[in-house]
Design brief:
about 450 residues, alpha/beta, TIM Barrel, nine-stranded mixed sheet, allantoinase, Metal_Hydrolase
């Protein structure tokens, strides 16, 4: 007897969509197809009529400040928000304290996450000056990749100089590790901010103009060059510029081992949101002008951009409000894990007619493959984890950050109307979100170690 059958839904596979049923046994997908006598007897059934049944969505760019100062998003709140947003697996980027730069720090992160996570999770490691000799241990413990900042970040995650980036890429080639960078030219960004402040600019658009497109474009170009010279493997996070997409497209055509992601705020929003909401829409790279936003879609459509992620980070409401009259008065970053999937579904399927399987690639399959979670995650097929996101593509709703399970209760999209809603989130055959309520508790989420997944 099956534990669960999801029937009458539009089931999204890698190569298309079929109207039928999915059977679950012991947390794994057991059956796919049309129900036949004797095979589909089940303890529980979900009628998904009119709904899309996607492979559980994966957000590989979520910042949890935990362990940390306990005032910003922790593992419990952020993974509740993930469940509410149809995310079944998060991959956490290290910005917490201590930085995930060695084995003991990784173990502490894993312990913290295991006690609090409401969805399944995997972990990044940090790439910082002085820890190249720690990468092997971090990789063995399950780090999916190593994230570094060639921009300036903070004292816990120092700027990576070019020499270190080059050496890390050589190790990437030798060991098969995946590296990722926040691609902005550190000196140009810092100088641009100083210039704006000297001019007396405090308005929101001063933030965008301080980090003009060339700041990101130069860094992407440099990273591509180093990656091509070393034969390493590099991932560009939260790319905001269409010109960067063109560089990556050409690099891929030459056989450079490089991938890229963008975020909803770069393809569904533009700098007018920054102008309107100041600190609440301040992030790096910054929101860009509308013409860039429209052009960036070309690289989503043709596959140059491999995935769409949230880059979620949750600052105090008061921290962001402090930048209302002076944009320099708050740090950079926005919430987004709960709105990632609905915004992508609306923009891609409702507004641009993307096929469902293309959206599954952008929100699940490509991330699972790149970060080593495939075929356990990221696909609907027998033997995979029974992770599903059920979507009502016609349902309209209005964003309210207070209802999204964020610790600080705000969203940069508060008041936006979105068409396309998460109906249910299911992890390993267990319904963790339905009827607007998260049902999983602390510790439900399992750690997914890519080193232990049979390929």
């Amino acid at each position: 007897m099956l534990d669960l059958v999801i029937r009458n839904g539009f089931v999204v596979l890698e190569d298309g969509v079929f109207l039928g049923s999915v059977g679950v046994k012991d947390g794994k997908i057991s059956l796919l197809g049309q129900e036949e006598d004797g095979l589909w007897e089940t303890k529980k059934a979900i009628d998904a009529q009119g709904k899309y049944v996607f492979p559980g969505f994966i957000d590989p760019h979520v910042h949890m400040w935990d362990p940390g100062k306990a005032i910003r998003d922790d593992w419990f709140h952020a993974t509740q928000a993930a469940a509410a947003g149809g995310i079944t697996t998060v991959i956490e980027h290290p910005l917490s304290i201590p930085p995930v730069k060695n084995g003991p720090a990784f173990d502490l992160k894993l312990k913290t996450a295991s006690e609090k996570a409401c969805v399944d999770f995997a972990l990044w490691g940090a790439l910082v000056p002085g820890n190249l000799d720690q990468l092997e241990e971090l990789h063995a413990k399950g780090a999916v990749a190593f994230k570094g900042f060639i921009s300036y970040c903070n004292e816990d995650y120092p700027h990576i100089p070019d020499s270190l980036l080059y050496e890390a890429l050589k190790i990437s080639k030798e060991k098969g590790y995946l590296l990722a960078v926040h691609a902005e030219n550190a000196e140009m960004a810092a100088t641009g901010e100083e210039k704006m402040k000297a001019m007396g600019r405090r308005d929101p658009l001063a933030h965008m103009e301080s980090r003009d497109e060339i700041v990101e474009l130069e860094a992407i170009n440099r990273v591509i060059f180093f990656t091509e010279q070393t034969g390493g493997h590099m991932h560009i996070v939260h790319m905001s510029i269409a010109k960067g997409g063109e560089l990556i497209r050409k690099a891929k055509q030459r056989g450079v081992h490089i991938t890229a992601e963008t975020c909803p705020h770069f393809i569904a929003a533009d700098c007018s949101l920054l102008e309107e909401r100041a600190g609440f829409a301040k992030c790096t790279p910054p929101l860009r002008r509308k013409e860039n936003t429209e052009k960036l879609w070309e690289y989503v459509e043709d596959g140059t951009i491999d995935m769409i992620t949230s880059d979620h980070t949750d600052y105090l409401y008061e921290e962001k409000l402090a930048a209302k009259d002076d944009i320099w008065n708050c740090e950079n970053g926005m919430t987004g894990v709960a709105t990632l999937a609905p915004m992508v579904l609306d923009e891609c399927m409702n507004k641009r007619g993307f096929p469902a399987q293309k959206v599954a690639q952008l929100l699940s399959t490509n991330a699972a493959k790149l970060f080593g979670l495939f075929p356990r995650k990221g696909i609907i097929r027998p033997g995979a984890d029974a992770d599903f996101t059920l979507v009502d593509l016609e349902k309209e709703w209005v964003v309210d950050g207070k209802k999204l399970y964020y610790k600080q209760g705000w969203s940069p999209y508060d008041g936006w109307k979105i068409k396309g809603a998460i109906d249910k989130t299911i992890i390993r055959g267990t319904v963790v979100f339905e009827d607007g309520v998260v049902k999983s508790d602390k510790g439900f989420g399992q750690y997914i170690n890519p080193r232990k997944i049979e390929k």
